[in-house]
Amino acid sequence: MLLELHPLITPAWGQIFWGGIVFIILLFLLKKFAWGPMLSAVNEREKAIEESVNLAQKTQAEMKQLQAQNENLLKEARAERDKMIREASETSKQVIADAKQAAKGEADKIIKDAQVVINSEKQAAVAELKTQMAAFSLEIAEKVIKGELSSDDKQKALAEKLADSISVN
Q1: Is 158:148 a contact under the CB 8 Å cutoff?
Q2: Cα gap 91→159, rounded to integer Å
Q3: H helices within the chain, ranges in order?
Q4: CB 11 within 8 A of CB 19
Q5: Distance CA 95, CA 91 (A)
Q6: Under 8 Å CB-to-CB from 19, ≥6 apart: which residues?
Q7: DSSP 79-91
Q8: Interatomic CA distance for residues 20 and 29, integer angstroms
């Protein structure tokens, strides 16, 4: 039995030679037509994957940078907003203070003008009152003199009295 299997296990030299030739031709054909394109496709795929990984890393770095820039912009925007609110508050306080000052100045001016008008009208009233008092005094004096000088005897007595007072001086 071992002898019968032996020719199957050990090939003849012709079979080894032709098997080797066929193997070399097959190897050459595979290398030229199959392995070359397959290796180039694998290399291209490897390059594409490497470029994709690099692009992903670069994009991730850019995203982190953009996120940091966005955070900085948000901080700056918040600071600017707070500054604008403070300035608006200060401006409104200043405007209110200016308006109060202007209103006070206007009120003071109106009061001064009113006092001037009151004083001038007071002086005019006093002058008119003096004029009326003088007119009333003249009327009273006229009536008293008319009453005193209504008769001839009273006129003579007054004339004598005046003459006596002039000569005494």
Answers
A1: yes
A2: 88
A3: 2-9, 13-29, 36-148, 152-168
A4: yes
A5: 6
A6: 11
A7: HHHHHHHHHHHHH
A8: 14
How far apart are the C-alpha atoms of 120 and 130, rounded to whole Å?
15
pTM of the model: 0.39
Q: 39-73: b or e for each residue (b if 16 or more CB lie within 10 Å)?
A: eeeeeeeeeeeeeeeeeeeeeeeeeeeeeeeeeee
CA-CA distance, 45 to 113, in Å (whole number)? Answer: 97
What is the torsional sign of CA 102, 104, 106, 109? Answer: negative
Residue type, position 4, single letter:
E
Phi, psi of 87 (to 5 degrees): -65, -40
Position 44 scores a pLDDT of 93
Cβ–Cβ < 8 Å for 40, 34 = no
Tens of pLDDT along 111-133?
999 999 999 999 999 999 989 98
Measured CA to CA, the distance from residue 138 to residue 60 in angstroms comes to 114
CA distance 15 to 18: 5
pLDDT tens digits for range 129-159: 989 988 888 888 888 777 777 777 777 777 7
Report which DSSP code applies to 151: S
